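Continuing from yesterday's entry. The apo prediction looked reasonable, so today I'm repeating it with adenosine-5'-triphosphate included to see how the binding region is handled. Same sequence as before; SMILES copied from the compound registry.
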Amino acid sequence: MSFTPSPPPFSGSQLGCIRGGRVVFAGLSFQVTPGDALVLLGPNGSGKSSLLRVMAGLLKPATGRLAWGEQAVAEEPELHAARTHYVGHHDAVKPVLSVAENLRFWARLHEPHAGRAAESVETALDRFGLAHLKDIPGKMLSAGQKRRTNLARLLAAPSPLWLLDEPTTALDKRSIAELERVFAEHRGQGGMVVLSTHMDVALPGAKTLHLDEFSVEEEDET
Ligand SMILES: Nc1ncnc2c1ncn2[C@@H]1O[C@H](COP(=O)(O)OP(=O)(O)OP(=O)(O)O)[C@@H](O)[C@H]1O
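Holo prediction written out below.
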């Protein structure tokens, strides 16, 4: 599968973010084009999660503009949500639904065709090593299994733009290697990956963005 037509560049210009009355970053610009990966780096509190939430349309930037091609993201929030997978720190796995039911739920949100959705769910279960857990309710999963279920929606419901906050947290080595292959395939199909991490993740040719370069020194009031 590849994204047809090829998605336009996703970009941000002069973005600023204020949280809890503090400027987290200012003057930040980026661009990702089909096949790109962008890795957000920086110490704790530098704003990686905040930027991902801004990119996902979940947090309004204090300044600046996000665009999908020429189109302002703020003008088409529903379309932006439909073309984006945001996987944050909090697992979105519903505790009473089984692994397969969780994936079916996400698949049907993005794919109205039941047959295609079911096929994607099978692929996602298989690739993320979840087939043997498919009937287990979300509440009975380990941290790593929950994380894999959460990430499996990337394949259960295809979307061109993936925004992932420390996606390797709680994953074992084998799952990280599989996730790296999934990233490579997504990029090969014209998809885009933006992720934050404190670990090495194999993303050949990825761009990097150091959030601490956009921090704003606060005046000392004493
Ligand atoms: N819900 C919130 N309300 C107010 N301030 C917040 C909120 N969430 C985060 N912040 C603040 O925003 C700043 C950036 O936090 P953010 O979580 O984006 O950083 P991060 O680079 O992702 O950190 P980490 O590496 O620890 O995950 C921090 O100063 C933090 O205290």
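Comparison notes:
- The helical segments are 48-56, 77-82, 99-110, 114-127, 143-156, 173-188.
- The two ends are 59 Å apart (CA to CA).
Will overlay with the apo model tomorrow.
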